[in-house]
Design goal:
Mean pLDDT: 90
Structural class: alpha+beta
Shape: elongated
Number of helices: 2
Strand content: 15-25%
Helix content: 25-40%
Distance between the termini: 42 Å
Largest sheet: 2 strands, antiparallel
Radius of gyration: 19 Å
Number of domains: 1
Strand order of the largest sheet: 1-2
Length: 105
């Protein structure tokens, strides 16, 4: 049993002590990691669609890009909202804003 009263799984890996040890985990933690991995793969696919933009940085699910001023925000959002071929049926939508400098919106 884990601290939440459910079943737990253990595996060996590098723990909080930075040493090889047995680590305990549970289902929701595995789901969280899977979801984050898929979100990262979708972001990488979106980054590939922005061939004509310079990616300055990315923060979690956000990209900061430099683009030609003639490129519209709607065009950038359309490119980023494209569904990867391996995720057929997944509905994505991107939103953004333009600014002369980075700011957390």
């Amino acid at each position: 049993m884990n601290q939440f009263g459910g079943e737990s799984v253990t595996y060996e890996g590098i723990g909080a002590t930075k040493k090889w040890e047995r680590i305990e985990s549970y289902g929701p933690k595995f789901v969280e990691n899977i979801v984050q991995a898929i979100a990262r793969d979708i972001l990488c696919y979106a980054m590939k669609t922005l061939r004509h933009c310079s990616i300055v940085m990315h923060i979690h699910d956000e990209l900061v890009i430099e683009a030609n001023p003639r490129m519209s925000l709607d065009a950038v959002c359309e490119l980023m909202g494209r569904t990867p071929p391996w995720a057929d049926g997944l509905i994505l939508e991107a939103a953004g804003y333009t600014s002369l400098y980075y700011k957390k919106d």
